[in-house]
Amino acid sequence: MAAGRLSFSNITALAPMVRIGTLPMRLLALDYGADVVYCEELIDIKMAKCHRVVNEVLQTVDFVGPDERVMFRTCEREKDRVVFQMGTADPDRALIVARLVEHDVAAVDVNMGCPKEYSTKGGMGAALLSDPDKIEEILKKLVAGVSIPVTCKIRILPSLEETVRLVQRIEKTGVAAVAVHGRLKEERPRHPLHLRHMQAVARAVSIPVIANGGSLDLVKTNMDIEDFRKAAGASSVMLARAAMWNASVFRDRGPLPLETVMEDYLKHAIRYNNHAFNTKYCLCQMLREKVESPLGKQVQAAQSSAELSEALGLQEFYQQTQDQLQAKRDALQTSSQPETLVMDGDVATMAVRFERREYPPHITPKMFLLEWSRKEKLQQPLYEMVQRSEDRSFQSTVTVEAKRYRSTLWEKSKKFAEQAAAVVCLRVLGVPEGRIGEEYSGLVCKRKREGEGKPNGTAGEEEEGSNKRHVFETQQETDDKKKNGERHKQPMTS
Fold this sequence. Notes:
Blueprint: E1 12-14, H1 23-32, E2 36-38, E3 42-43, H2 44-47, E4 51-55, E5 60-64, E6 70-75, E7 82-87, H3 91-101, E8 107-112, H4 117-120, H5 132-145, E9 150-155, H6 160-171, E10 177-181, H7 195-204, E11 209-212, H8 223-232, E12 236-239, H9 241-245, H10 258-271, H11 276-287, H12 294-301, H13 305-311, H14 315-335, E13 342-344, E14 347-350, H15 365-375, E15 382-388, E16 393-400, E17 403-407, H16 414-429, H17 446-449, E18 467-470, H18 475-484
Parallel strand pairs: 1-2, 1-12, 2-7, 3-7, 7-8, 8-9, 9-10, 10-11, 11-12, 14-17, 15-18
Antiparallel strand pairs: 4-5, 5-6, 13-14, 15-16, 16-17
């Protein structure tokens, strides 16, 4: 293996776990001593539609889907030690995804062990175990097509001989390592591991074999990791549930109290703007039988990162982090060129934000745009709204005379997002927008400009007559709520 490439010999790794293996948990595992961390299985079809975005505020690299959801987020801290695991049954699509991420991760892994129907019905996961030709085709394509190591993760087959033959065939594709979960695809954690199969596999190949599946019976503390490695005859060990329950199992100086682990995890989740319902799910998995304790009930009741911070006594840390992130956003906005017009398809865009202090109390850009439209005998402006699920911020597009206008900056409220869209439209059209110090245009009566209108008017209330169409893209949040209701079910390792 070339210098600088990730080695899979004599390592302890965080296993890929659905909904668990997001950035905060991976960083936590690295903090506590894990050598390598795997992300949760990500499906090739969804990843192939993503585009790579450098997030200058969070200092991350985000792979963002068409619906603006962040499918995969990584950062410099883990770049040399994170393995991207994909679910795939298509060699060409697998290569597209691998090439998309190869410069931001240390290795690519193919999931061949997940027994869940959502994976197997698409021919992915454990379904691949019955199609060795497809396995070989996928792995060869990846090994030849990317510059980083390629690995795979399997479950054992019914007979020892079948298992050995499969792994020997996998080795010939040129992969850097193979992880073996020592159970059949029909078996669950309550079933004992088949150590004979794992030992036979390790003896039969020269590439590193990573043992997986020992969290319930064989690995309870850091000292047990080496015993599990020896019992399986493997080069390395991969931990799933033991790490999910208390990631300090990776510490060679002994475990930390659960509350400390939860606080450390939540700090990473706050720093990297992790989705609140994913954070909540992970915290509930850590609590296990304590999920009905006073702390557990408070975590379960939380609906935001702020409320989770309150449950764990991290309100001050949360507020300080939010202030720091906002300061970065403001600095980036100041250094940008807000007056630059950029066409995004058929939409005219500018990087502008609605600043309420720049307008008289009862005047807004939306009001000016509405009055201008009436004066020109045009249809009222039509506003379309989308909500970004990752941070629940808003972006609006306004249509005037069959032309569309939008700010590229996301706002914290629907009203401000619409005002920002109106600002873009007015500036492109060269129409006054009502800012303080602007020459009187006659679009809005002087009484309103001088604040003699409605005594309690607020931005956006005076334009309720304009047409609106709100399209909220919050499916991820809905899905996460449903998943959160299943918190007592253990996540599948892929």
